[in-house]
Design a protein that fits this description.
homodimer; alpha/beta; Rossmann fold; 6-phosphogluconate dehydrogenase C-terminal fold; 2 domains; six-stranded parallel beta sheet; three-stranded mixed beta sheet; 51% helix
């Protein structure tokens, strides 16, 4: 049971978490904080938060659970602001898509309270954002990755794990570096590839014609190129080292495939395509009702 | 009205065309040809064809419409086989995803009958194949691209156009080169990228873990990597020149994006992502009930 939950950044992610915990009857008061008053008012109207403030430090006062749900670029500043105001029994977690830079910010900002910080990343979302898009079942059946540090207190980890489990999510643990490498390869790199393909095609003289004849495969392949540009530039830069590695690995393998095409090496193309099909058919979970 | 329709290669594409024409009441007899007798028997059981033969030349005898529905790699041989057997009033079309190499094969095989040949490409399909996967509404609302040659007889073009229009498809015309460049950019290159990403990730030591945490974006992005490997190696090689150009354009633009990431150039990333999102949101048609 969470007595007082503080959500700093009441968007799709933080808002859906609050709704899920309310539905589970596991939270007392919910206090929202953020910069956009209209969004916070909507969150109150929708029953996501009981009250709100634009001051993150005020929001976390006497809260036993603090969820930082802001963008990666804003996380360090929020951690610095809330650090002096945290209650003695407070546990702090975040929802960032990259963990290395959040952990660095937490080390710098939280000092002795680092033990109370549990880095987290719910693998869920839609293309919508803001409190208006939040819904209680967003996390049901989805994974939430926690990347606890050597310093993380076992009790803090357990409380964050229990919170996410109550939303219907499957909670797993990973090392910070392994998380960032895995997400670079399966999420951040595909976004870069999709953005690059669409941007490059859009610059052609025959762009309209090109897009006009695009089929369903192209639509699915480029769906993630409709994601929020500022958010994804933020994520790419926050995970720069792992993403650069993923980009180089991809470009090098792709150059090999292009060389095979150039050399009319049908066997090499067939073998690579068949390996990929087998891996995808075996490993990628079938479509669910949820997106992302 | 088609008196006798010959379908050489009674798979998803040719079979669905026959079913749609039957439903529209626009075809008399349908004769199927192919190499797999079990598939041809299934086509007869399902009412797709009235009778079948394993000899393409026998199938086209006295047919006024001949549809070559075999793979790109088999098209040249089929055209050579049927050329001497074509009826004087026969019109011939194909369904290949690449047009340049089909046109070259037709020029070599058909001689004086080239005027009766109308290169075609229905932009429709599913991940299934074979006569068992055929259904009458496959083409409804989808585009069919025809790439008539200077030599193509206007009457032949008109008969093929009317046939496809009767299936509910929207028939458009393009030049051969423009078709192959557009399909390289929006279909063949994305397949190569998706195959490459999955194959490269599958080769990693942590592949299982990586795939386990892949979210919906990855699933959509890589859906086309579950396509038939032999078919797609065939398509890539058949459209080699245009595909190599598309690959080089992509790789060069991608290197620019990676350089921006390396240089922490947030503005350049945001601008490219925003251009891509705007182009996709404006130009890519929303999801329909049909796939591909």
């Amino acid at each position: 049971m969470i007595e007082r939950l503080a959500i700093v950044g009441v968007g799709l992610i933080g808002g859906s978490l609050a709704l899920a915990l309310r539905e589970a009857g596991l939270v007392g008061e919910v206090v929202g904080a953020g910069r956009g008053v209209a969004n916070l008012e909507l969150a109150r109207e929708r029953g996501i938060v009981d009250r709100f403030t634009t001051d993150p430090a005020a929001a976390v006062a006497r809260a036993d659970m603090v969820v930082v749900g802001v963008t990666l670029g804003a996380t360090a500043a929020v951690l610095e602001t809330i650090a002096p105001a945290l209650a003695p029994n407070a546990v702090v977690t975040d929802v960032g898509s990259v963990k290395g830079n959040v952990v660095a910010a937490a080390r710098a900002a939280l000092g002795a309270r680092l033990a109370a910080f549990v880095p987290g990343h719910p693998i869920a979302g839609t293309e919508q954002s803001g409190a208006g898009a939040a819904f209680a079942t967003l996390y049901r059946g989805h994974k939430v990755i926690l990347t606890p540090l050597a310093e993380t207190a076992p009790e803090a980890l357990e409380r964050v794990r229990a919170m996410w489990a109550a939303t219907g999510a499957r909670v797993v643990e990973m090392a910070v570096d392994a998380h960032d490498a895995a997400l670079a390869a399966t999420s951040h790199l595909p976004h870069l590839l999709a953005y690059n393909l669409v941007d490059q095609l859009a610059a052609r003289d025959d762009a309209e014609r090109i897009f006009e004849f695009a089929a369903g495969g192209f639509r699915d392949f480029t769906r993630i190129a409709s994601s929020n540009p500022e958010l994804w530039a933020d994520i790419a830069l926050a995970n720069k080292a792992a993403l650069l590695t993923a980009c180089r690995d991809f470009a090098s393998a792709f150059a090999g495939l292009v060389a095979a095409l150039q050399a009319d090496d049908a066997e090499r193309l067939r073998t690579a395509f068949a390996r990929a099909k087998a891996a995808r058919d075996r490993c990628v979970v079938p479509e669910s009702n949820h997106r992302e």
